[in-house]
Amino acid sequence: MVELRTYIVEDNATIRENLIGTLEELTCVKAAGFAEAENEGCAWLTQNEDAWDLAIVDLFLKQGSGLGVLESCRNRRPGQRVLVLSNYATADMRKRCKQLGADAVFDKSNEIDALVDYCVELCSARG
Question: pTM for this structure?
Answer without folding.
Answer: 0.97
